Amino acid sequence: MESFVMFRDLAIILVAGKYLGLLARKLNAPQVAGEILAGLLVGPCLLNLVQPSDFLAQMAELGVVLLMFGAGLDSNIDEIIKSGPVALMVALCGVVVPLLAGTGLYAVYYGIDGVGSDSFMRALFLGCVLTATSVTITVQALRELGHLKGKVGTTILSAAIIDDVLGIVVLTVITGFKDPSTSITDVILDTVLFFVFALTVGFLVFQLFERMDLRHPHTRRLPILGLAFCLMMAYIAEALFGVADITGAYMAGLVLSKLKDSSYIERRLDISSYTIFGPVFFASVGLSTDVSAFNASILVFSLVFLVVGLLSKIIGCGGTALLCRFTPGDSLKVGVGMMNRGEVALIVAQKGLAVGLMNAAFFPAVIMLILASAILTPVILQVLYKLQPEEHPDGLMGK
Amino acid sequence: MESFVMFRDLAIILVAGKYLGLLARKLNAPQVAGEILAGLLVGPCLLNLVQPSDFLAQMAELGVVLLMFGAGLDSNIDEIIKSGPVALMVALCGVVVPLLAGTGLYAVYYGIDGVGSDSFMRALFLGCVLTATSVTITVQALRELGHLKGKVGTTILSAAIIDDVLGIVVLTVITGFKDPSTSITDVILDTVLFFVFALTVGFLVFQLFERMDLRHPHTRRLPILGLAFCLMMAYIAEALFGVADITGAYMAGLVLSKLKDSSYIERRLDISSYTIFGPVFFASVGLSTDVSAFNASILVFSLVFLVVGLLSKIIGCGGTALLCRFTPGDSLKVGVGMMNRGEVALIVAQKGLAVGLMNAAFFPAVIMLILASAILTPVILQVLYKLQPEEHPDGLMGK
Q1: Which residues of chain B lie closer than 8 angstroms to A175, CB-CB?
Q2: What's the helix, strand, coil split of chain A in %, to 5?
Q3: Of A96, A187, A325, B258, which has the fewest CB atoms closer than 10 Å, so is most exposed?
């Protein structure tokens, strides 16, 4: 490839991604949806202006790592600890139920050859794609409705944070099995060792960053060395422990999230993320979506996958809330607030594609789930709050 | 290459680049010097931790395009026009004299086979590397001395801006000849056509951006679409006109430099530049520097190249200032202020390497010139101002 072709490819992706992203926002869908559609539009599926290339794939991979690092930086460890047993239970069931439901769906549709077989791993992986909640849209909707700081809003937010961590753990264990020769004890041992390593090194690195932050607050070295730490953790996770690179990046973010300047780092790297790496990643999902294999059977599967995806979160999270003595109305709100899926589902799916646990033919189903949940979540939440207003909306809770 | 290796490579480059950059700054050298040395240090020359790869080369190329776009955005067209005939003459002679001196140096050392031959083009290209002044260090030095807004300072700043544009024109014409079958009229025609195209399209694109800036000031779409415009211009320059991609990127920046939000765009993209693309570019220079071919003869050549590089600017710019009735002392200050070289010399050298007009063996000479001029310029300026103080330092000029 002549090197200047990459400039054209990037330019097309950026323009298409931005305009379709803005269009999506106008239609009250997340911008991400537009950026994925941009990849579908300019890629081999439709206009064929941009072909997938090694360079774009590598930029996309860097984009995912940046996104996960940002997600880690944005987390609040204290809040996760404070949020207590209810949020933990909601999150736990919100991961387990979709995981089982997704696995079951694959088993019913394609059959599995027994525990540990390749088809079993693929089934588990499909379940894994269903585990990650994306609350950005829910948060936006609750804020607009004035219910973000209510009991339901707080529970959803806390559960979503724990959900992120649990999702990462599940993903880590499952991708650990990509090599059929590895035993389950090896994978679990490697995973545990990685988390021990991440926490130990993380503790030391955090001390170094804290001292640097104290002596040189708001300087360029913070985002640059933060990024280097994230990349190194991504490398170490994969190369030394066989753990997904995005797990390493997320843990790096989590380690630095307690830093005084963590939001400074996040804002700086977020700019690189949204100006170039993010759009390339989301477009690359569209670029690599295989619509040639799309047929009626996959369409039906996608619709069933969509229903299973939404209901499993509503049942898992809402049911748990009901058991924790939330009113039926509030329980439903918790369930609906947690059913939204976003970039993490895509990141997981992309990871599955890379390690050979997922077929590109499933991408339309994942994309459909993201688009549909993004549109349905705010609409249903609005209806639910109209039918059953919460007792203490933000305005009445005082300061 | 396993994809996670790129994370490790990037992490090593970022850490080494940042720390050597900080060390360089402590020694009053530009950070860029440290970043280049980082590439030498971690690359095959010394530690061999990072090997050159396609991905790094492409990231570096993106980095150069971003740097040149930023340089264009940072320009002030009005100032270029206002600065008048003196600055124009200083800049013009400051380009022509080093160009001839560099060409002559190559001819004396390696001989040339006549006008238009391959060796003639290589000689011209070596001259081309000597044309671009980098005033960042001079500006910093003059600011510290309190003489930035004096007659000498204003002349240097204006001349440096014009010097940038002239350097780009020279580079464009010379790289146009990379294909030996092209005739000189074709290259000049293509170059002229490209600038006509850039100004026409630039005018239209500027209108679009101005309207967008008015309706959506300080929004993400500005840097994203600005970057897309830059990349598209880089592509069009190379693919359609055979003009260097960096010329396209610089012109894109120049077009958008009159935008109200031009500094908003520049600051956003500068962050991507300094956190990741810039360090990779400068390190890649070190990575691709071939020290195995380094020997006494190249060392002698490098020293001669250094002297020719510094003197040609002092004679070209200082001599012109003298002819324009500056005092001998002030003329010398102008000459010394213009002798500093920086990233553009490297960008041009890298371009020469890519199109086959420059040998990697010359890189040590270019790097030595940048390092030495970066150290000498502020020191000599300080001495000159002590010996012959300017009549109107900043403090006395009033407001």
Answers
A1: none
A2: 80, 0, 20
A3: A325
